[in-house]
């Protein structure tokens, strides 16, 4: 799976974004591979309140996935996602981030609840570690996942990430290793 996210800050507290995802999957016991453009999302993020200490910073994020992309991952309807995002500093180098929200698949009208809880630790000004759990609840089906990773800041504008995760839900075992980079550009005045 590979996705690319573009985020653009309109103001200090408001940004727009788009995400494009290409996915390839081979299932155990299956003879073929499914691959293709799996998502194109457009979104907004707004920072509602800047916290201090144990009072968290609070934001709201929404995205909308486009339907009718074609191929194996096509959805029939727009698929919205809404999230309340919090972030707070628990100690000098320890941070706690949560996401709470709801999303729709684009194939039916049944909502799914989503959550993420992330604890991160700054080893230095350039190296950070994290561990997180995330999951979803759709009707009576609850899935939970775990991952952990490291981020390395090469410069003020370029960060590298390496992470791994797993899940064991409904007799389905998932494992992944992934990497990425974040590059910040400066807007000319």
Q: What does this protein structure show overall?
A:
The protein is mostly beta strands. It has a domain at about 55-185. It is built from no helices and eleven strands. Strands 1-2-3-4-5-6-7-8-9-10-11 form an eleven-stranded antiparallel beta sheet, with no helix packed on it. The protein is about 0% helix and about 70% strand.
Task: Describe the structure in brief.
With 189 residues, the protein is mainly β. 0% of the residues lie in helices and 71% in strands.
Topology:
Layout: E1 2-9, E2 14-26, E3 33-49, E4 57-65, E5 79-91, E6 94-104, E7 111-122, E8 127-138, E9 141-155, E10 158-169, E11 172-183
Antiparallel strand pairs: 1-2, 2-3, 3-4, 4-5, 5-6, 6-7, 7-8, 8-9, 9-10, 10-11
């Amino acid at each position: 799976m590979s996705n690319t996210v573009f985020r653009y800050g309109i103001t200090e507290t408001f940004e727009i974004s788009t995400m494009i995802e290409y996915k390839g999957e081979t299932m155990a016991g299956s003879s073929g591979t499914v691959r293709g453009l799996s998502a194109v999302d457009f979104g907004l993020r707004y920072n509602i309140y800047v916290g201090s200490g144990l009072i968290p910073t609070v934001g709201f994020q929404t995205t909308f996935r486009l339907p009718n992309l074609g191929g194996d991952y096509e959805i029939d309807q727009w698929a919205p996602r809404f999230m309340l995002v919090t972030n707070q500093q628990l100690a000098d180098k320890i941070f706690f981030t949560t996401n709470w929200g709801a999303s729709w698949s684009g194939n039916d009208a049944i909502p799914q609840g989503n959550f993420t809880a992330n604890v991160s630790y700054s080893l230095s000004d350039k190296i950070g570690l994290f561990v997180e759990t995330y999951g979803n609840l759709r009707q009576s089906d609850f899935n939970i996942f775990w991952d952990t990773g490291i981020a390395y800041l090469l410069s003020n504008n370029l960060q590298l990430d390496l992470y791994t995760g797993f899940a064991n839900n409904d007799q389905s075992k998932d494992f992944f290793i992934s990497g990425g980079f974040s590059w910040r550009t400066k807007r000319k005045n």
